[in-house]
Amino acid sequence: MLKPVLQLLLATFCHTAALNAQCLATDNFAENFWLNNMPSQPGIANETYRLDAWGDEFYRIPVVAGNTYYFRTCFPENISPTNINTILSLHSNTNTLLVWNDNFCGQQSQISWTATYTGQARLSFNIDNCGLLITTSTKIGIYYTAACTAPSVSQSPSAANACLGGTASFSVVAAGTGITYQWQVNTGSGFASINNNSTYSNATTSTLSVSGITALLNGYQYRCVVTGTCGSATSTAAALNVSSTNTWTGAAANNNWHTAGNWSCNQVPTPLHDVVVSTGVPTIAAGATAQCRNLSKSGFLSTIGLQNATLQIFGNLTYNGGSFSTNSNSSIQFTGSTKQTIGGVTPLSISNMVINNPQDVVLNNHANILGTLTLQTGKLFSNDNLLTVNNFANASSANYVVTGSDAGVPATTNGIKTSIGAGLSKQLPIGPTSSSYNPITITNSSGPAEDFTVRVNQTAPPGFLQQASVGNTWQIDEATLGSNTVTLRLQWNQNNEGASFTRQNCSLYKSDGVNAIDQDGYTPQIGAATNAGGSSWYHDLAGITELSPWGISNGIVTLPLRFVHFTAQPNKRQQVALQWSIDEVETAASMWITRSSHNQRFDTLAKLEGQSLHTTAYLDQLPLPGRSLYRLVIQSKNGRTHFSNLASVNLGSISQSILLIPNPAVSNSSLIFNSQTPQIAHIRVYTATGTLQQYQMVTLAEGRNTVLLQTSGWKAGVYSVVLFTANGIQFHSKLIKH
User: Fold this and answer.
1) pLDDT in tens, 569-620
2) What is the DSSP string of 385-441?
3) What's the mean pLDDT when you consider all of the chain?
4) Strand, coil or helix: 215
5) What angle do CA 403, 407, 410 make, to 5 degrees?
6) pTM of the model
């Protein structure tokens, strides 16, 4: 009996509806078709007609563990009869029944089975028309779906270290059915998917690439989401650590600065990199320009070579050892946009320096510029360090050397040092602050070449009358005292002038540190100042043989002190009010307010110094009974002592009292008492309830006495202070303790 034809259909099976699809029609015929050539992936094979296999007959089906196999029968369209019975059965290769189905006189039968092993299965089928012989053909469709493995990550990305401007990558190892990759980044606000752009590439592969790395990316977290047919898995996150440090290694076995292999970042430094050189001899080729942000230089035997080359520093220079090998055609340029510093434990020595930073550069150690200091843009603060410069270029009222600090602290020790040959002149472009340009020009009129050191401060020299002078001091020192005759030109701004200074009648004067003098190696040349442009003026003085602090004034300014008046008057409270007026108080150093009861010994009531010298009144709250004499004593800056007239007061037999200052008190208070004779006295302090708080015995001298009361351990409140004299007289006062 001819067996019905079998057609094998292999197709990807994604959902159950596929099993109910119409069978494909064909008229191909072949014998002995063994089903052992199924494709390794789901797909469609050529259809072939076969006889049915039943009883001990079967078709061999290759199966793979985990795959799910679907078998069904169907007849061609429009066949008759329609009540055809189909039976499918599947056995293992050892003939164990795995699954079967009888459609009981329907036109289709179907079974499914998920393979539990890899090998062969045996398929047999049988058809009839429910008792009648059927000779029409039928087809068998065989579908399978591959085993689905859930995604898993076996290796998450590791943290990546990268240099600014460099590249980095993150990789993940994952497995699963039909997996895809999506990298994500957390910039601080949670993870978000990455799209390919100028920074990121391969964002949907197992390895993410990051390029053109900036400081903004430092600390960003990266992870990968792996998605497959059976779900998804997410790797752990890894950080991108961005470093700006690029260290010289010399690994390329040459000294060329511009060889990428000589640097730890494997790239030539850029203005983004903090360069560290502690070993080797990195050399910038002639005619080339090297760049970096911060530069840290150390290493006793290490040298940076700049022969006919340029090094641009956009940050700070820290110089702790080694050297710079420079020549007259090389320069180090400070080209930043924020304030830069030059520091370290070793003084810097180079050929040429360029300041090109509108936010200024600060020197934190001595420096020696063998060639030219070019002040292209911005100022250089020498910060009271010794700055030795051979030549200056491009200096102006906007670009100069400030001898003080960027915090406004004036220079007191060092300045700008330069050498001036015989018969030559040189302007030193200096100022005391960033808003006051006060250059000095020195002409070496006669004598050998000489080293001059100059600094300028924003106050008139000692002994000058401030209101009649320019408020600047130019301190000028020479290496060999008195070996040269020079001409000085001092320049100032109009806002440096004192209120009574007259530009039409001024001269240069020197100070001996106490007084202004008009002799000692020069003759004042009083005359009109010359306009240097805008609000700037200058004045010259020739024939100078001895240098010291110099200033500009309208004349000799050390004037004698003179007391205009000094008076002493009692008030209604039996206190004595003192008042006075003094000419030229600016030249005073100290003043004492004194008192005597018999014109033999004067006791000090108060001492005034500094700004308090401008005080013009004092109140004696505990005057002596009877007649007292008052006198002011002033010592001037030149060491002379000046006395005021005597002012007399007679208070008769005023009642004595004690004075407590301060009152209220916190930690202590001074008890002040005028004693008419030397004597032993007792001081008792009582609380508000009458309890003795403190007792002490004191020896009083004639005149004003001060006794310190320690109140720090007392409770807050009101206390009674009583002084018992030797003759039994008591003096009372209240003291409030906070």
Assistant:
1) 988 777 899 998 887 776 777 888 988 876 567 888 899 988 788 888 999 8
2) --EEEEEEES--SSS-EESS-TTSPPPSS--EEEEE-TT-EEEE-EESBTTB---EE
3) 84
4) helix
5) 40
6) 0.60
